[in-house]
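Feature request disguised as a bug report, sorry. It would help if multi-protein outputs had a clear separator. Right now it looks like this:
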Amino acid sequence: MTEQHHPEVAESAEVFGTVSADDRAVAPPRSHFYESQRLRLHYLEWGSKSSPPLLLVHGGKDNAHSWDWTARLLSRYYRVIVPDLRGHGDSDWVRGGDYQLDDFVLDLSTLIDSLELAPLTIVAHSFGGVVSLRYATAYPRNIRQLVVIEGIGKPYQQRDPLAELREWVERTRHASDRIARRYPSVEDAAKRLQESNAAISMDQARHMAAYAVRSNGDSSFSFKFDPYLQILAFPHRYAVEEREAHWANIDKPVLLIHGTDSWLSCDTSWPKHFPKARMTVVPKAGHWVQHDNFQGFMQALDGFLECPR
């Protein structure tokens, strides 16, 4: 297992203006790799190995370093593990581009078991929330607390199977023909990130872009995620009745976080399908709650996590 350190994280830690002198003393993350289904997958580790474990799981087309600000603060109290999901960040792409939801669950399970993290707290965003919910329904005993940020989408509506198959085939063909967009510089990639989310500052965008892109070897840069992730919609959905029945398996505390300005639908009845769940809506935040209103997001976490202070 290889290990690297990232001092750049400490240098950019004051982007949100919430870093204290104690936070500045936090050591930068350590970089590791593990294997799952013959893939070499990457994760970051923050804090002391003797602290309670907490997993941060990023969303689709994102990467582990988008959690840097959150991880930095939580690492004062937790051993924070932050994976790059397969096809993202510094983790391997899947040969052939076949990304199945349950393979992501397998990767999460492999990481948790190999590091002996259970029972643990999981905080997950967007698609990472989908994966983490799926994991928690299968392994509720491994969960201490679960936070899902904008990780519940519209339930699957049954359609003509052949129409779905044709759509999936066309999307797969399109992904195979797609050429990753090239940016002249990391700064240009940062501008693209800010264009996609006007709520983040350029300092935030620069920090995220520094880890989100790779060099193409010709002075240009492209985002690291696999273009085949664009087709991760079929056949991974499951019906609302099945979904809600699975949620009932999670008998540990669950917090569902949503942003007031998000494009994603929010159903206030969701918590009733969990034995121990509640919902918090963070003001002045869109889908990227943890970036759009960092203080509001951290307050929501602080009011929920059983933090060993």
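(second protein starts here, but nothing in the output says so)
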Amino acid sequence: MGDKTFPHVNVDELAQFREVQQLAYRCVESVGEMLLLGMTEKDAARLLTEWLQDHGVRDWLHKPFAWFGDRTAFEGFSGLSHMAGFNLAFFPSSRRLEENMPVILDVAPILNGVIADVGYATCIGVNPILEQLKDDLAEHRELIVITDDDAYWLDDDLPHVRRWAQRGQTQFAA
């Protein structure tokens, strides 16, 4: 195996990335709490856009997305053959939110030239599969950060870190 070359990260810039990442998470968590049964994916995406615009965002890596129910599995989303490689299936639809449906909210704001891309899973009601997936992810998160030289945790105040703390799983927290 050859030498691994990692991009240089300027420690002074981490605060800017942390700020935009926190903004993105506040957005998806806030909008997640605003979701109502009967709303469409388009309604949720509009709320994400408005929330970020209200907080100073004017540019995007990609516009906010929302997916409900089986669309969270991205079935039929492959085959990037439309719009210069971007499948129209990714765009929010008129799918209506029902109780116990999984939801993914995805935002990628650019603020002062800094980008954060956040995907957030939630549910109105109870979805045992989503809960199991969150638990499984928490158990494997520690594999993502190998050493301090290989990757950086931008923030300890993220949904998965709070979830570990609530469950007493401090061994996974950064």
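Even a blank line would do. Unrelated, but nice: The first helix runs from residue 11 to 34.
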